[in-house]
Amino acid sequence: MADRDFIAQLRGYGLTTAEILYHLPDHPALLQSYVWQDYDLAPRFPKLLVFLEFWNGNLDGKVHRVRVTNKRLIDPAEFRFLGGRFVLN
Q1: Global pTM?
Q2: SS (H, E, C) 21-56
Q3: Which of 7, 46, 54, 88 has its CA 20 to 30 A from that of 25?
Q4: How far apart are CA 60 and CA 55, in angstroms?
C-alpha cells in the first residue's frame, strides 16, 4: 500500500513549512518561534488555516506573524509510470 504522504503529493499537495512567531503569555513583550510542517495545498493552505484557528481558539500565545513556504516535491513533469521490469542478479 502506498504511503499517505506520497499519495498526497501525487494529488498536488506540497510540503508546507510555517514559522509562527507568537507572544509569550507570561511575557507579552517577548516573541517565541514555532515551526509547523505538513503537506498542504498552495495557495489557500486549508490545513494551515485549520491549525491557526485551533491556535487562536485554544492557546494563550497571541500570534504575531506567520511566514509560509511551500514546495511541491513531485511535479507532473518529474513523475511518470514506465512499463517494464527490473531484474537484479
Answers
A1: 0.78
A2: EEECCCCCCCEEEEEEEEEECCCCCHHHHHHHHHHH
A3: 46
A4: 8
